[in-house]
Design goal:
The structure holds 2 protein chains of 2 kinds.
Chain A: H1 2-31, E1 36-37, H2 38-47, H3 54-66, E2 70-77, E3 80-87, H4 89-113
Helix pairs in contact in A: 1-4
Chain B: H1 2-13, H2 20-42, H3 48-58, H4 61-66, H5 80-108, H6 113-147, H7 153-157, H8 183-202, H9 208-211, E1 223-225, H10 229-253, H11 261-279, E2 287-289, H12 295-342
Antiparallel strand pairs in B: 1-2
Helix pairs in contact in B: 1-2, 5-6, 8-10, 10-11, 11-12
Classes of the chains: A alpha+beta, B mainly alpha.
């Protein structure tokens, strides 16, 4: 019984992570229509009910920047150097397409569930 | 905060050296801002226990650093199907080349059991080494393609270039009600066929492989093998070699799912030859007495053994002929049905 529960828990956790992965990217891109540095971005997402681990969000920002979806600059704020990110022009275009895709999926799933 | 400095130092050790200072500076700014928020909320600095809990929640340094790595796998999903395909082909041909090479080496020198055994035992290590080199080659390509995607445009487009017109023609109809033979079972048949052949070749030198502890009795036995067993033995070896080669060719051609009627017919037909040799022995003298003087004591036992071998050979011969006729009948029936369907 305990063993099968562990398998079920692991399966759920894997599927949950898989489901969240794409949504987190979309949420980060959406939030970065305004400029943020890592910690304030995390706080802003959490305020909207989307908690993301530090070890997931900060590397994600780097990857999105390397893919050309974000731009960044180092700037001093409150006597501390911080790296600020925002959506690049390519990022804005891809974000719009992704948002459209996500809304279509959402509509389809709602329709299936009715 | 000493603990945060130690944590960041540990993370830095696992980061790619080109970007580690930049990543650590950013991580430090984020974590210090978070720490400040926590301490403002509490109205006091974090205790050692609270700081430990906080860092534990962020994750082990090695795991945090790993998230910054561009590649967390050896061979990615784009290359993996090609890797598996190449690995199968290379391993298969390696096995064939190794078998041919080993047999050639054995044929040039004196065939001893220890040399045969040595060749068999060396095979898995050889195969593993080849597989490791193939894996390494693909891992290097994956590594380079991840870091320099512009240099490997064909790799990304290799799957999208696929067209349905490149699909292979339909394979022959599988046996009705039976699952087609899988690649794994076809490979297993080849491996076990090879091992069986080795076992067969070792029997004349190590009779215990066939007779078990009874082989100890052989030197003291009053009976000896008649000369007919030598050509019969080599016919059986030749049949097994033919079958092994046939199955290897099927694997190379990618035809392991097909029915093996032709193979069955050829093997059955040629299998009748050694049976015919046995049945043609004058007076069915498969075993003779080492000393003619033992005739009175062991003559009856020898005749009884020879008679049972004769009847066994006859029964096997009858079964083989029936199998052969059945296979020929099925093939003729299929041909007739196809011709009728085409009309």
């Amino acid at each position: 019984m305990g063993y099968s529960m562990t398998i079920a828990d692991n399966l759920f956790e894997n599927l949950r992570l898989e489901l969240r992965r794409g949504c987190l990217t979309l949420a980060a891109l959406a939030q970065l229509r305004q400029e943020h540095y890592g910690y304030t971005l995390r706080k802003a997402l959490a305020e909207h009910g989307l908690e993301i681990d530090e070890s997931t969000l900060y590397p994600l920002l780097r990857r999105l920047e390397a893919q050309g979806l974000l731009t960044s600059e180092w700037r001093e704020e409150e006597k501390r150097n911080k790296r600020f990110y925002r959506l690049s022009s390519d990022g804005e275009q891809i974000f719009a397409e992704l948002l459209e895709e996500w809304q279509a999926i959402n509509t389809s799933i709602n329709s299936i569930l009715q | 905060m000493d603990l945060l400095d130690r944590y960041l130092q540990a993370v830095k050790k696992h980061l790619p050296w080109k970007r580690q200072d930049d990543i650590i500076a950013e991580l430090r700014a984020n974590l210090e801002a978070q720490l400040e928020d926590k301490e403002t909320g509490l109205g006091r600095p974090l205790s050692m226990g609270e700081a430990e809990d906080w860092l534990r929640q962020i994750g082990p340094p090695r795991q945090v650093a790993a998230r910054y790595q561009p590649q967390q796998y050896l061979i990615g999903p784009v290359l993996f199907p090609s890797y598996l395909f190449v690995l199968r082909i290379v391993c298969f041909w390696t096995m064939i080349a190794y078998t041919i090479g080993s047999v050639a080496l054995l044929a040039t020198g004196t065939v001893s059991e220890s040399r045969v055994l040595e060749a068999v035992l060396r095979a898995p290590g050889f195969l593993l080494t080849v597989a490791a080199w193939v894996t390494l080659g693909f891992a290097v390509v994956e590594f380079a393609a991840t870091r320099r995607p512009e240099k490997f445009p064909t790799l990304a487009g290799s799957l999208s270039n696929w067209t349905p017109s490149t699909l292979p023609p339909l394979e022959k109809e599988a046996i009705r009600g039976k699952k087609p033979r899988s690649f794994a079972s076809a490979v297993a048949e080849v491996i076990f066929g090879f091992l069986f052949l080795v076992w067969l070749l070792l029997i004349p030198h190590y009779p215990f492989l066939l007779m078990g502890p009874g082989a100890l009795y052989l030197p003291y036995s009053p009976f000896q093998f008649a000369p007919v067993w030598v050509p019969v033995f080599w016919w059986v070896v030749a049949l097994n070699v033919t079958q092994l080669v046939w199955r290897c060719v099927d694997l190379i051609r990618g035809a392991w799912r097909q029915q093996r009627r032709a193979e069955r017919i050829v093997i059955s037909a040629f299998g009748l030859i050694p049976l015919g040799m046995l049945l043609a022995v004058p007076d069915h003298a498969y075993f003779t007495l080492k000393n003619v003087t033992d005739q009175a004591r062991y003559g009856a036992a020898r005749d009884s053994i020879n008679l049972s071998i004769k009847w066994s050979a006859l029964v096997i011969c009858a079964i083989t002929v029936l199998q052969l006729l059945w296979s020929i009948w099925r093939i003729s029936l299929d041909c007739y049905r196809k011709r009728a369907a085409a009309m």
